[in-house]
Amino acid sequence: MINLHRLDLNLLMTLNVLLAEHNVTRAAQRLNLSQPSVSVQLARLREIFNDPLLLPGPRGMQPTARADALREPLREALERLEQAVAPASAFDPQLAANTWRVSATDYMASAILLPAMETLRRQAPNTRLAVFELNPAQIARQAERGDIDLVFHTRDGAPPSLHQRLLFRERYVLAGRAGHPALRRTPTLDAFCQLEHVIVSPDGGGFSAATDTALARLGLSRRVVLSVPHFLFMLETLARTDLVAVVPERLIPDAAMLQVVAPPVEVEGFDMLMLWHERLHRDTGHQWLRQQLIRAVADTR
């Protein structure tokens, strides 16, 4: 058994060239070394492998059976090592076959990923995108383990250990079904509080959100009659009932089924961030993906 600690890369590279040239002088020239240096390295290789490796012959040095057995595996191993340490090649989206793993809520997927999908499919047709349910408590750990490549998150609570890029500043609007009699214009505060509201509670069962905090500062409260875990069900509810909701503006599709006005109370918006781990910061494919998402959200507003 060869002790790998006795080998170094220089010795293996010298052996590879010697097995190709069968001549110490020519090998020294290719390696840009002196002939005595190559001879010393050959002596060390003979000791390590317990084999002469190359023997004097009438037409230069002749490889032993052991050397012949080493030739191809050694050449292939050095080529693979050279490829492994070579500088990263430019990312070609047309040839790429990446599977990107993204963590997002349904709102984030609709507001960020959906505008980018047409470009991603056209420019990188062989790539795949997997969207995972956002788990805020596990973001940093999932990113560190490589379970997810990219995360969308509000600035509040974003793990400081991850790289951050601001995608947009979101604001809230008041939405209800098209033709809703209370939304022909912005309702008064009193009328707003009397409407029946639906809210999204990601944790389930909550009946208070940022709007209720803003109302409480004014000594007011509203009628929240429905709490749902996802935005998709909320949008369907708005379109089919007289319930209303204060929602992120980018969530509302360009459709005739909903009416949108400004809410009568100022609800503080939020910053939407894109997060990723240091291990992917310089990856050319990941850089390309991030740039496509940045451009997509910039073009939607």
UniProtKB/TrEMBL annotation:
PANTHER family membership: HTH-TYPE TRANSCRIPTIONAL REGULATOR LEUO-RELATED, TRANSCRIPTIONAL REGULATORY PROTEIN
Gene Ontology terms for molecular function: DNA binding; DNA-binding transcription factor activity
InterPro entries documented for this protein: LysR-type_TF (IPR050389), LysR_HTH_N (IPR000847), LysR_subst-bd (IPR005119), WH-like_DNA-bd_sf (IPR036388), WH_DNA-bd_sf (IPR036390)
UniProt family annotation: Belongs to the LysR transcriptional regulatory family.
Protein name: Transcriptional regulator, LysR family
Protein source organism: Enterobacter lignolyticus (strain SCF1)
Alphabetical keyword list: DNA-binding, Transcription, Transcription regulation
SUPFAM superfamilies in UniProt: Periplasmic binding protein-like II, Winged helix' DNA-binding domain
Alphabetical list of Pfam families matching this protein: HTH_1, LysR_substrate
Residue intervals of the HTH lysR-type domain: 7-64
